């Protein structure tokens, strides 16, 4: 079985821990302790788990929300750069096992674009990751387009990672169930709706009329591949501004398997998106490493297609 490159594998640097811990308040303390140990480990435990699962390389990214939770723009910019320098040091010690996505401070989009360029040109990073809303704003707002323009110029993708829904959405949609089912706001539903909405808004914003920016969505596209036909059909009805939603989405987005190891869901994505736009990811340490590779080995696809998902598509998209 071909070895794998995993694209949504997380870490924490010392300056970002205080942003992460408040997001874990509903999680049992012993689970938080285990997650923290694994997020801050880059040696025997993480590498040993990768070896057992046949994962050749992990593209590391900050476990959110990172500096997107910081109100002070200057401090956010400083800590993002520190996190990127920290990750560059990790990669330098294990260059065959690790690569990185940049962490950027959206509070200063022009500065974030510069930091992305530094990370790509000087540190060898493969793109950037954004965690949900930016200061309560959707990222299709034109204030953030300088980041997307720079990613286009650098020919690197932006990974859209989930984050907590807007507080107003939580209050309107989830508050009756949030106490008994806290994961509903996260991986069970809230993350998916929020991140899919970010992607939909990017398509409708007109961004792709000006820029050929490439984006990645985890969790098999946050449900959008299943819904593409209906979204496209709805937006084609009379009274809408013309938009070829399905074509634009399929041309600019790739998706990963992070935390979503389902045969029917994968096969639907292959039919809708094409095999070349699907990449392997685990979502470690929030998902165990072993199940994803074991699942990929037995999915009903030919060996050539499995190899594309496992690493071939990542090598092409990230120029590895």
Cα separation of the termini = 20 Å
- Kindly state the percentage of residues in helix: 40-55%
How would the global form be characterised? Answer: globular
| Average predicted local confidence, pLDDT | 96
DSSP strand tally: 9
Poorly predicted tracts of residues: none
CATH top-level class: Alpha Beta
Q: So, the CATH homologous superfamily?
A: Metal-dependent hydrolases
The helix-and-strand class reads alpha/beta
What are the defining features of this structure?
15 helices; 3-stranded parallel beta sheet; single chain; 6-stranded parallel beta sheet; 320 residues; alpha/beta; TIM Barrel
Task: Describe the overall structure.
- The protein is of the alpha/beta class and 320 residues long.
- The protein has a single domain (4-317), classed as TIM Barrel (Alpha-Beta Barrel).
- It is built from 15 helices and nine strands.
- It has helices at 17-20, 29-39, 44-53, 73-93, 109-121, 145-154, 167-178, 190-204, 207-210, 219-222, 224-235, 245-252, 263-273, 291-298, 303-317; strands spanning 4-11, 55-62, 98-100, 102-103, 128-131, 157-161, 214-217, 253-256, 278-279.
- Helix 5 (109-121) packs parallel to helix 6 (145-154).
- The longest helix is centred in the N-terminal third of the chain and has 21 residues, at 73-93.
SSE layout:
Blueprint: E1 4-11, H1 17-20, H2 29-39, H3 44-53, E2 55-62, H4 73-93, E3 98-100, E4 102-103, H5 109-121, E5 128-131, H6 145-154, E6 157-161, H7 167-178, H8 190-204, H9 207-210, E7 214-217, H10 219-222, H11 224-235, H12 245-252, E8 253-256, H13 263-273, E9 278-279, H14 291-298, H15 303-317
Parallel strand pairs: 1-2, 2-3, 4-5, 5-6, 6-7, 7-8, 8-9
Helix pairs in contact: 5-6
């Amino acid at each position: 079985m071909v070895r794998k490159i995993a694209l949504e594998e997380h870490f924490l640097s010392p300056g970002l821990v205080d942003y992460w811990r408040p997001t874990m308040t509903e999680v049992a303390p012993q689970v938080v302790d285990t997650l923290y140990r694994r997020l801050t480990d880059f040696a025997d435990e993480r590498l040993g788990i990768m070896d057992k699962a046949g994962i050749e390389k992990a593209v590391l990214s900050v476990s959110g929300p990172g500096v997107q939770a910081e109100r002070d723009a200057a401090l956010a910019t400083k800590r993002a750069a520190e996190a990127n320098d920290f990750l560059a040091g990790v990669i330098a010690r294990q260059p065959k096992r690790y690569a990185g996505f940049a962490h950027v401070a959206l509070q200063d989009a022009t500065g974030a674009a510069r930091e992305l360029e530094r990370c790509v040109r000087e540190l060898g990073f493969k793109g950037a990751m954004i965690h949900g809303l930016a200061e309560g704003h959707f990222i299709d707002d034109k204030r953030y387009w300088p980041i997307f323009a720079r990613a286009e110029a650098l020919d690197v993708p932006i990974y859209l990672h989930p984050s907590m829904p807007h507080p107003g959405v939580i209050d309107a949609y989830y508050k009756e169930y949030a106490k008994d089912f806290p994961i509903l706001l996260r991986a069970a539903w809230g993350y998916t709706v929020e991140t899919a909405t970010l992607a939909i808004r990017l398509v409708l914003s007109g961004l792709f009329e000006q820029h050929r920016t490439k984006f990645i969505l985890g969790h098999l596209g946050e449900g959008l591949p299943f819904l593409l036909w209906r979204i496209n059909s709805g937006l084609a009805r009379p009274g809408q501004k013309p938009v070829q939603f399905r074509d634009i989405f399929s041309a600019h987005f790739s998706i990963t398997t992070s935390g979503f190891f389902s045969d029917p869901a994968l096969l639907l994505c292959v039919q809708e998106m094409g095999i070349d736009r699907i990449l392997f990811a685990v979502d470690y340490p929030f998902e165990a490493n072993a199940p994803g590779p074991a699942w990929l080995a037995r999915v009903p696809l030919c060996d050539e297609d499995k190899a594309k998902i496992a690493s071939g598509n990542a090598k092409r998209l990230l120029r590895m």
